[in-house]
């Protein structure tokens, strides 16, 4: 694998081969299936978050009774729905850059599974956060909205940090990953799994703030899932990622300040 080959990076869609187009279609079909499954699996008490302004007595904000196992399962399905469209160009790019011969399908499967394993681990943390939010709701809608505003402010600030920029650069392109770990991915399922997990780690580092916003808005709300998934995809695909990231951060900060100062904008009257 030469540096000239590495320099091509993620190929333009117009340059994709039929096999690469079929691979992209398969990943997008899996994502569409995951969206349908998410709508089926989502429980009513997971569609509204602390930013909804709902009263703790409303059915949608009842104490979350779902166990950790079911939550993580639903979380992984949701992550597949949200992340597979954004990770498709990466998968096509690394397939082209790594000469895997007959092991191509195994490598692609390993990359995808490794990616989702990391997000499964993130789901355990997300479960603890949602249970914390569930306790905050009991303090009243005004308090819960202000707590949600703090989440928006934290996520907005993170958009401007060097760590966000560092993770985003690596999440957008397979070049650095392939230069260091491409041969490992081509050796077998274990190597591909490890490289996929590494890419998933970059993605978690890039997107955790946006995921926290999703948890606060309604972890299984299809509307908020679509909004956050669109923002993640835009950050990964459009040129000038720093500008996009900063615009998103400014929007989050503005919304956070507004809701912290005036929680009545969404808080239910007592």
TrEMBL record:
Cross-referenced Pfam families: PpoB2
Transmembrane residue ranges: 21-42, 62-87, 108-130, 136-158, 208-234, 246-268
Keyword annotations: Membrane, Transmembrane, Transmembrane helix
Sections of the chain in a coiled coil: none
InterPro entries per record: PpoB2-like
Protein name: Putative metal-binding integral membrane protein
Source species: Saccharomonospora cyanea NA-134
């Amino acid at each position: 694998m030469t540096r000239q080959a590495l320099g091509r990076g993620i190929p333009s869609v117009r340059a994709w081969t039929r096999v690469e187009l079929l691979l992209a279609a398969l990943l997008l079909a899996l994502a569409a299936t995951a969206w349908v499954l998410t709508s089926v699996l989502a429980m009513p008490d997971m569609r509204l978050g602390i930013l909804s302004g709902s009263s703790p007595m409303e059915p949608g904000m009842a104490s979350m009774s779902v166990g950790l196992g079911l939550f993580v399962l639903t979380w992984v399905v949701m992550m597949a729905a949200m992340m597979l469209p954004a990770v498709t160009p990466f998968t096509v790019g690394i397939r082209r850059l790594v000469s895997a011969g007959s092991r191509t399908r195994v490598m692609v499967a390993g990359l995808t599974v490794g990616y989702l394993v990391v997000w499964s681990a993130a789901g355990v943390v997300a479960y603890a956060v949602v249970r914390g939010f569930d306790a905050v709701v009991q303090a009243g809608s005004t308090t819960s909205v202000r707590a949600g505003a703090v989440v928006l402010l934290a996520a907005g600030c993170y958009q401007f940090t060097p760590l966000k920029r560092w993770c985003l650069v690596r999440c957008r392109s397979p070049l650095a990953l392939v230069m260091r770990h491409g041969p490992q991915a081509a050796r077998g399922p274990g190597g591909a799994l490890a490289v996929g997990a590494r890419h998933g780690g970059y993605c978690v580092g890039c997107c955790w703030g946006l995921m926290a916003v999703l948890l606060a808005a309604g972890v299984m709300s299809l509307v908020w899932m679509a909004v956050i998934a669109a923002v993640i995809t835009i950050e990964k695909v459009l040129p000038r990622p720093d500008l996009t990231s900063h615009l998103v951060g400014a929007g989050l900060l503005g919304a956070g300040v507004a809701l912290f100062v005036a929680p009545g904008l969404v808080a239910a009257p007592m």
